[in-house]
Amino acid sequence: MFASVIFTLGAITALTLVYRILNFINLYFLHKSTLPRYLHAGKHSYALVTGSSDGIGLATARALAKRGFNVIIHGRNREKLAGIANSMAEEFPTIKTVTVVADATNARPASELVAKAIATVEEEGGKLTVLVNNIGGMSMFNANPHAALIDTPVELIGKQVDLNAVFPTMLTRALLPNLMANTPSLVINVGSYAGVLGLANLSTYTGSKAFNHMFSKSLSAEFKLSKTAIEVIGILVAQVETSGNPSNKPDFSTLTPDEMAESILDKVGCGKSLVAGSWRHCVLGQMPGWLPEPMAEAMLRKIAAKRNEAEAKKWR
């Protein structure tokens, strides 16, 4: 009897492991993106990418333009966005690029400004079929982003939560009438493994990113329940080399913005509501779960301490 129980448990464990390996291979090496499904309005199809003046956002906007979408790029710096629009017009002469300026740290008015820009695009015949909620971060504020909560100014906490959680939520709500009218449509929420791991001295950032992840899962389930043809996918991101997140020693886990953007778009249609964008980030993000909890927490504290020390030196 005992032997049969052990055999059964062993068989279940082995089958689960085989399933996970096959699922990993399919997801990251065999799956073909269904992004063209959202190009159904042809030359009138538009994709909005928030926080697209540099980094992952800019790379994603360019990748979408390469795939035939007109793009709406968003940021805070009007001159920078204008320069990007001119550059994209030269690189993609058949694609339209629209700019919209709004400060996402003031979530409600910013979401209203972006929604008005989309309304203008649609009045002129465009159709919003893709929304990429990319904007987020912690390094754009004039303060140490790795400070303990007790040392974080109250006004900064509000701005971080607005930027990472409130703005994407309010913008998605504001644009749902457009996305519902233009189905099938797509919402991509760019998240962070920090919101899964809960790193020290990043409580506001990791908390707001965790909200982002559950927002993706819940909204995806909501549309499936109502049989609304809107795909929602949350993307878990780890180390990416950007101006706001420089890496002095790029390694196995570090991606360029272009690599990350391609990986994000490659996951469209994978059937998951929350997934690591890159197989390398998937491996890195899953590693703590393979260890005993005390060991995993000790490892994460060590990583956090090293990074906190490096950041503190910049602000002395």
TrEMBL record:
Superkingdom: Eukaryota
Alphabetical UniProt keywords: Oxidoreductase
SUPFAM superfamilies per the UniProt record, alphabetical: NAD(P)-binding Rossmann-fold domains (SSF51735)
Gene Ontology cellular component annotations, sorted alphabetically: endoplasmic reticulum
GO molecular function: oxidoreductase activity
Family as reported in the entry's similarity comment: Belongs to the short-chain dehydrogenases/reductases (SDR) family.
Name this polypeptide is given: NAD(P)-binding protein
Upper classification of the organism: Eukaryota, Fungi, Dikarya, Ascomycota, Pezizomycotina
